[in-house]
């Protein structure tokens, strides 16, 4: 328990000390810069888009002492706090439906798991039966693939209460996993990052039906984060240069464009809106 507490304290300090901002770009206009939607000192990270493509969800420490989930309205430019819980930390928000979103709730060691609630701050409901402390996750029709907070490993919980392992258990997928896990568009598979012991970072696909793991493409050593477009192409940043990988051609990463925006130096986590119009990219400085 002391080890877990130390790890949690270390992680919390690194989050609050980091300076990151979320930038918004227009994919329909050659990735033209739209806005730095957080433009402040402190931690603003983990962007995702609502299902109607009108807002960006993100994690921020602006409430003081802990992280909350915020929503930025693209049209109005206004931001509002969705959680506002001084005694808890929330992060890794993703849309669940038109009126609900998923997020990781951290209530202390080892109580950290996937929950969901309405955008109107209604009561929260647990979204994962596993008691492995979760940190990052991806969801599709097959179930939830999640990264164990203290295990650096991936676990899978199949969809449906009568499917897969017993309540409170999950299937082990792999160790040495990176944090960037995503549903693969137009597929029932997931993409994951294998941080191999030789220092190579490889994006692989995980098939929950066959339990097979298949290599897809090497990642650059400067950035472990990537995202998918609705068309099924992979994006990542190398500095301020946007790179693209197309699994259909199996060609190496290619330079797509330069993300020109004031203060934007090094891209990190990213997400593309469901309609393909917007790219949200974190500037990690």
What's this entry about, in short?
The protein has 285 residues and is mainly beta.
Furnish the topology, listing elements before pairings.
Blueprint: H1 2-17, E1 21-26, E2 32-36, E3 44-49, E4 55-60, E5 68-73, E6 79-81, E7 89-95, E8 100-106, E9 112-118, E10 125-126, E11 134-140, E12 143-148, E13 153-158, E14 171-175, E15 182-183, E16 190-195, E17 201-207, E18 212-218, E19 227-228, E20 234-238, E21 241-245, E22 254-258, E23 267-272, E24 278-283
Write up what this structure looks like.
This protein is mainly β and 285 residues long. The protein has a single domain, classed as 6 Propeller (Neuraminidase). Helix content is 6%, strand content 46%. The chain has one helix at 2-17; strands at residues 21-26, 32-36, 44-49, 55-60, 68-73, 79-81, 89-95, 100-106, 112-118, 125-126, 134-140, 143-148, 153-158, 171-175, 182-183, 190-195, 201-207, 212-218, 227-228, 234-238, 241-245, 254-258, 267-272, 278-283. A four-stranded antiparallel sheet has the order 2-1-24-23, with no helix packed on it. The protein is globular. The two termini are 34 Å apart.
Shape category: globular
Please list the strands of the largest sheet in the order they lie side by side.
Answer: 2-1-24-23
Kindly identify the CATH topology. Answer: Neuraminidase
Query: Strand content of the residues, in percent?
Result: over 45%
Structurally, the number of domains stands at 1
Elements, N to C (H/E):
HEEEEEEEEEEEEEEEEEEEEEEEE
Give me the Rg, rounded: 18 Å
Tally the helices: what do you get?
Answer: 1
Percent helix range: under 10%
State the low-pLDDT regions, or none.
1-17
Main sheet specs = 4 strands, antiparallel
CATH class: Mainly Beta
CATH architecture: 6 Propeller
């Amino acid at each position: 328990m002391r080890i877990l507490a130390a790890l949690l304290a270390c992680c919390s300090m690194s989050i609050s000390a980091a300076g990151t901002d979320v930038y918004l770009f227009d994919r329909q206009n050659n990735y033209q810069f739209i806005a730095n939607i957080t433009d402040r000192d402190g931690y603003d990270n983990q962007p995702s888009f609502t299902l109607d493509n009108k807002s960006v969800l993100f994690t921020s420490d602006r409430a003081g002492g802990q992280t909350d989930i915020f929503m930025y309205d693209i049209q109005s430019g206004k931001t509002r706090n969705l959680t506002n819980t001084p005694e808890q930390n929330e992060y890794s928000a993703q849309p669940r439906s038109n009126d609900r979103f998923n997020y990781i709730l951290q209530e202390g060691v080892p109580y950290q798991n996937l929950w969901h609630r309405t955008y109107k701050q209604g009561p929260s409901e647990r979204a994962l039966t596993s008691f492995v402390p979760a940190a990052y996750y991806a969801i599709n029709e097959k179930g939830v693939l999640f990264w164990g907070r203290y295990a650096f490993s991936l676990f899978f919980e199949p969809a449906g209460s009568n499917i897969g392992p017993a309540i409170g258990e999950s299937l082990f997928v792999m160790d040495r996993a990176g944090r960037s896990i995503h549903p693969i568009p137009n597929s029932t598979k997931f993409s994951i990052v294998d941080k191999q012991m030789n220092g190579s970072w490889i994006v692989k696909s995980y098939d929950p039906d066959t339990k097979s793991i298949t290599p897809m493409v090497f990642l650059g050593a400067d950035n472990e984060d990537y995202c998918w477009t609705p068309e099924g192409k992979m994006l990542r940043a190398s500095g301020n240069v946007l790179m693209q990988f197309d699994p259909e051609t199996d060609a190496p990463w290619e330079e797509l464009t330069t993300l020109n925006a004031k203060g934007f130096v090094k891209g990190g986590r990213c997400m593309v809106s469901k309609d393909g119009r917007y790219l949200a990219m974190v500037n990690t400085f």
